[in-house]
Specification:
The protein is α+β, with helices and mostly antiparallel strands. The protein has 20 helices and 25 strands. Among the domains are: about 200 residues, P-loop containing nucleotide triphosphate hydrolases (Rossmann fold, 3-Layer(aba) Sandwich), CATH 3.40.50.300; about 160 residues, Alpha-Beta Plaits (2-Layer Sandwich).
Length: about 1200
């Protein structure tokens, strides 16, 4: 994974959309101070979630938006897009390219986007966990990061190690777990307070419930009396209501007729209005056309005026040019006359100069002849003297040689012995060096083979590490999915179990019976349960059984009829609703006729319903009563066929829920709503299924966790082995380099030995030749001949000196005559040059004047032609103006005609509006009358519904049923009213009665039990969280220890390599390893071990750089952005730093720098300039310019230097 692209728009000084492409390796960003280089670092930090405006060198977050300059407006939006190459799958997403974007506008709106989808900052942070990428990680090292590393407290410095150890994710999860633990503690406190409060409430509710029970008995009798009275009042209200409805219906019919008349008028009026609107549209088009015609006419008139003005200007300009032309012609004539005079003087001077040059040439020839004679005499004298000198030299040399021969003869013997010994020693040295070179060559091959084996094994381990990481990421994603499924399934199971405990979905009365049974109420001791609880059905047949049973699913099965009676009495006393009971001792089972049992084997039949369910055998009488005469069929055609075969005696239900009733009636179709019954029948099956799912998910989760741990351990083992192999390979490469150097040194030494041996052998040969005796006799003969040669040479010198003296006298005379002739020529030549210059200047002036005359003549002709063209154009404009004026008149007439038609349509629409208004007034009067009737109807309906609702809600009976059943019993009104008054008095004597005390007492008891269980669950969850936090602490400490030990080792190595020696170390503080600080101590070469604060500025900076590079070696970051961290280093340390960066093949570096050595190490260069004040741009740079000036220069180059590639941007 690496940083592939960075895009900016409106961010700080990058006003225009800017795009930077990055590749693996090192990218350098250069540019002058203040050009906006550091804004690129701020952009990366910002898009990764930086929330502090101060860290971005601003006061508000809106300060990152380009605010504008004197010449350019600001923008309203800042956007930064970061594109990461994810081909290796390091990020746990299904994309090979991951885009992270952030936007902010001046209104304060801010968005994060992940591959174009809006996400939270937390989502981005979780995606980048354990990648060492982030605003606080060491992937971004800004200008202040070095000082921060050096000056930070020991406790703060450990954050870098935690990032390298990969425990940032654990710390985030630990914080989340602590938050959840705190929430659980708070909820426990609240729950315990509530439990104490409920306990206090229960003490008072018990007495209130007893009083409420007596009150309900009195009220039941009162209700029965009041029920009869309310029913009679409801019947009277129904009669009056019917009368008002008939009157209202008559008014509606009259209003409907009037409304039809009004609709006809409205339709005609709408048609007239549409006609007027259409005419208005035509009017608007006509007005537009008229305006356009008038505008065109005006433009033609304006154009004509402009052309007239232009024609006048051209005439004046032509007259002015003709005057200038006459003046130039006069000046040209004068210039021609002056030029002819200068040419005549020049020709005369040419003739005089030619005669003077001929005379000077003659004198020069005479002087040259004399000079040659002198040279000849001097040559002869020199030759004679050379001959004399050679003779003298030869004689002296021969004498010296004779003496040297005598001395060397004695020395040669001793030197020959020494040279022979030296030749022997050099031969032995040559043999030794050849053997060393052969051994070194073999060692080089062995080391290269070992390094290649280590590299191949390292590649295999890297592939294994990558596979392990991918497997761990996949396992982590699977763990996350399974945990989510586990939570969802647990929530659903808890909901279903809670519904089962609370008997959700049952009718009120059934729920009261089941709750009483569960509570151990003696009144419900014989209750076995509801039918839905007592049967089990194949899921395929659930729909058919639901339809077959219908409301009977909620029937309650009891052991005896007496038990059912006691339960009914309890429901009445508690006013807890109604229920249907199935006593097992009195219920009559239903069975098909023996001859019809075979229907279940007919085609299309599934089974008898009683055979399709599972239940306790003791319940068979009740189940046979409900299901004994019901047959299940596959579909509706089969059901109809089976019904016909059975003579329509049985109820037949299909798998889809369609029903053929006894007698032939049919029920079916689509239900818009789901009923409660399906949930009741399938609830237990769903609970069991969910429990099985929980077990399966838990098993899969455990397997996934084990797989993830195994993959992570395998990745750690692979990483350790890779580092070991890298060290081995590095040691072998270093050893090979050392052996290569030794072999090269041996080769150089061998060459020197062989050269020395050749010299010694040559010197021995020379000594052998020099020792010949005949050489001395030859030297004596040569010495005698040299003396004779000397005497002849002395005579020749005397003769040559006499000839030379005569030749020199002749030369002096000829030189004087030649000098006079040359002076005459020089004078004439200077005069000729002056006159020639005057003639040339006259020709140039004449040519310039002639050209100007031609230009003015052409301009006059052009102006005349243009005036003629303008005259023709004006004639054409006049004709256009006449045609356009006629067009304007026609448009005005059309507009008047359309106005008249529109006014007629509008007048007709007003007439229809009057008729419609009258109809509306009549309709309003009818509506008012109808409203009065409807109000009366509504009042009577409300009165009737109120009475019915009171009977239904308070007494559980319908008004008409109660009135019809007890019509005879309401005749003695006075006795009934006296009894009602007595009942009210006795109820009043009870005082304040909490009628909901019984139910409230039950609810409080249930709530107390529920909260107590919930409190226990929270306590278990709290202990689980504490265990998880402890486990995370142990894991974080282990990871931190491993990373800390590795970082110490790498820090020591990197420090020694960057400083060329010395020692450095990291010291972990005392106390908890998860909180202890980390101290840095350093000992540069030649100094004592000391704290960072005692080092020089350059040493401090290089120490911090060593720590950051060691962090990258411990846990490589996909990319590292360095902002001028080499600024405090000298040239030598910069070169070390640059060379060291090249070692990190797995990390992409983007370096902002001013240092030449860092630039030279880069694979790619970008330049940042500010050609426009306040606006930064990205340009290409020339490495040659960087090398020459130390800074990138803006240029249009397309290739880099040093064989490196060049990227053009901006």
């Amino acid at each position: 994974m690496y940083l592939k692209r960075l895009e900016l728009y409106g961010f700080k000084s990058f006003a225009d959309r800017t795009r930077l492409e990055f590749g693996p390796g090192i990218t350098a960003i250069v540019g002058p101070n203040g050009s906006g280089k550091s804004n690129l670092v701020d952009a990366v930090r910002w898009v990764l979630g930086e929330q502090s405006a101060r860290q971005l060198r601003g006061s508000r977050m809106e300060d990152v938006i380009f605010a504008g300059t004197e010449t350019r407006k600001g923008v309203g939006l800042a956007e930064v897009v970061l594109v990461l190459d994810n081909e290796d799958g390091r990020l746990p997403v299904e994309f090979s390219e991951v885009t992270i974007a952030r936007r902010v506008d001046r209104a304060g709106g801010s968005d994060y986007l992940l591959n174009g989808t809006r996400v939270r900052l937390k989502d981005v942070q979780e995606l980048l966990y354990d990648t060492a990428i982030g605003r606080e990680a060491y992937s971004i090292v800004g200008q202040g990061k070095i000082d921060e590393v050096l000056s930070a407290r020991d406790e703060d410095r450990r954050g870098l190690i935690e990032e390298a150890a990969g425990i940032v994710r654990y710390k985030a999860r630990r914080r989340e777990a602590l938050r959840r633990l705190e929430e659980a503690e708070q909820r426990l406190v609240r729950l315990r307070d509530i439990l104490r409060e409920l306990d206090d409430r229960l003490a008072g509710l018990t007495e209130q419930a007893k009083k409420a029970h007596i009150y309900r008995q009195l009220r039941a009798e009162l209700v029965e009396l009041e029920t009869r009275l309310y029913a009679a009042q409801a019947r009277e209200a129904e009669r009056r209501l019917e009368e008002r409805r008939r009157a209202a219906e008559a008014v509606r019919r009259e209003a409907e007729a009037l409304r039809s008349e009004l609709e006809a008028v409205e339709a005609e009026r709408s048609a007239r209005r549409r006609e007027a609107q259409e005419r208005e549209g035509a009017l608007e088009a006509a007005r537009t056309a008229l305006l356009e015609a008038e505008r065109l006419l005006e433009s033609l008139r304006t154009r004509d005026a402009v052309l007239a003005e232009r024609s006048t200007q051209l005439a004046e300009q032509e007259q002015r040019l003709r005057s200038q032309l006459d003046e130039l012609k006069r000046r040209l004539v004068e210039q021609s006359s002056s030029g002819r005079q200068v040419e005549e003087r020049l020709a005369a001077l040419e003739r005089e100069l030619a005669a003077a040059r001929e005379e000077r040439a003659q004198r020069e020839r005479e002087r040259e002849a004399c000079r040659q004679a002198v040279e000849k005499a001097e040559g002869a004298l020199a030759s004679a003297r050379e001959e004399l000198f050679a003779a003298l030299q030869q004689a002296s040399a021969l004498r010296n040689e004779r003496q040297a021969r005598e001395r060397e003869r004695a020395q040669a013997e001793q030197r020959g012995k020494r040279l022979a010994e030296r030749a022997r020693q050099l031969g032995e040295e040559r043999q030794r060096l050849r053997q060393e070179m052969e051994a070194a060559a073999r060692r080089v091959l062995d080391l290269a083979a070992e390094a290649e084996v280590a590299a191949a094994e390292e590649r295999r381990w890297q592939e294994g590490r990558q596979a392990a990481r991918a497997e761990a990421a996949e396992a982590a994603r699977r763990v996350q999915r399974l945990r989510q499924q586990l939570g969802e399934t647990r929530s659903r199971l808890r909901l279903l179990e809670e519904m089962r405990r609370e008997h959700e979905g049952f009718f009120e009365g059934v729920r009261a019976v089941l709750a009483g049974r569960d509570a151990g109420d003696p009144a419900f001791a014989e209750v076995r349960g509801a039918v839905a609880e007592l049967i089990r059905v194949d899921p395929r047949l659930e729909r058919a059984i639901e339809v077959a049973l219908g409301p009977a699913l909620q029937h309650v099965v009891t052991e005896t009829a007496a038990g059912a009676e006691r339960a009914i009495e309890a429901l009445k006393r508690a006013r807890a609703g109604r229920a249907t009971f199935l006593p097992l001792d009195t219920i009559r089972p239903g069975e098909p006729r023996p001859e019809d049992r075979g229907l279940a084997r007919q085609p299309g039949a599934v089974s008898w319903a009683i055979d399709a369910v599972e239940f306790d055998p003791s319940l068979r009488p009740a189940m046979a009563n409900l299901l004994g005469r019901i047959l299940i069929a596959a579909d509706l055609p089969a059901a109809r066929r089976l019904a016909a075969l059975s003579g329509y005696r049985y109820r037949i239900v299909t798998l889809e829920g369609d029903v053929v009733h006894p007698g032939g009636a049919m029920t079916g179709g689509h239900e818009r709503r789901r009923r409660e019954a399906p949930g009741l029948l399938g609830r237990e099956r769903q609970i069991e299924s969910l429990r099985q799912q929980l077990d399966e998910i838990a098993r899969q989760l455990q397997e996934a966790e084990e797989a993830r741990r195994a993959a992570e351990e395998q990745a750690i083992r692979a990483e350790a082995r890779i580092e070991e192999l890298r060290g081995l390979r590095h040691r072998r490469e270093v050893a090979r380099a050392e052996v290569e150097q030794a072999r090269a040194a041996a080769a150089r030494q061998l060459a020197r030995v062989e050269a020395s041996l050749a010299e010694v052998q040559a010197e021995l040969d020379d000594l052998a030749r020099a020792g010949a005796p005949q050489a001395e006799a030859a030297i004596a003969e040569q010495l005698a001949a040299a003396e004779e040669r000397r005497r002849a040479a002395e005579e020749g010198v005397a003769k040559a000196e006499a000839v030379l003296a005569a030749a020199r006298a002749d030369l002096e005379r000829a030189s004087a005559a030649a000098a006079q002739a040359a002076a005459r020529c020089d004078t004439l030549a200077r005069e000729r040059a002056l006159v020639a210059e005057q003639a040339e200047r006259a020709r140039r002036d004449g040519g310039r004047l002639a050209a100007e005359v031609e230009r003015l003549q052409a301009e006059v002709a052009r102006l005349a032609g243009e005036r003629h063209s303008l005259a023709g154009e004006r004639e054409g404009l006049a004709a256009q103006q006449e045609r356009q004026a006629a067009e304007v008149a026609a448009r005005r007439e059309e507009l008047a005609r359309l106005l008249e038609a529109r006014d007629r349509a509008a007048q007709r629409a007003e007439e229809l509006e009057g008729r419609a208004e009258e109809a509306r007034r009549r309709l309003d009067r009818l509506g008012e009358r109808l409203r009065h009737l409807e109000v009366e109807v509504a009042r009577l309906e409300s009165e009737r519904d109120r009475l019915r609702a009171r009977l239904v809600e308070e007494y559980g009976v319908h008004a008409l049923d109660a009135a019809g059943a007890d019509q005879e019993g309401v005749q003695n009104w006075q006795a009934a009213e006296r009894r009602a008054r007595e009942l009210r008095r006795r109820m009043a004597e009870l005082g304040d009665v909490n009628l909901a005390a019984v139910e409230e007492h039950e609810r409080v008891c249930e709530r107390y039990a529920f909260l107590e269980r919930h409190c226990q669950d929270l306590e278990r969850a709290r202990e689980d969280l504490r265990a998880v936090i402890a486990e995370m602490d142990r894991e974080m400490e282990r990871l931190f220890r491993v990373a800390y030990d590795r970082l110490r080792e790498e820090f020591r190595k990197v420090f020694r390599e960057l400083f060329g020696g010395g020692h450095a170390d990291l010291v972990l503080g005392e106390g908890d390893a998860l909180e202890a600080g980390v101290q840095i101590v350093a000992q540069p070469p030649g100094k004592k071990l000391q704290h960072l604060s005692l080092l020089s500025g350059g040493e401090r900076a290089l120490t911090a750089i060593a720590l950051l590079l060691a962090l990258i070696r411990v846990k490589p970051t996909p990319f590292c952005l360095l902002d001028e961290i080499d600024a405090a280093l000298d040239d030598r340390n910069v070169e070390r730093f640059a060379r060291y960066l090249r070692r990190f093949t797995d990390t992409q570096f983007i370096v902002i720098t001013h240092q030449k050595a860092t630039m030279a190490a880069a694979d790619t260069l970008y330049g940042v300039t500010m050609p426009e004040s306040g606006v930064s741009r990205i340009v290409s740079v020339r490495l040659a310019d960087v090398a020459a000036g130390g800074e990138a220069s803006a240029a249009g180059a397309t290739t880099g230097g040093g064989g490196r590639r060049e990227v053009n941007a901006g």
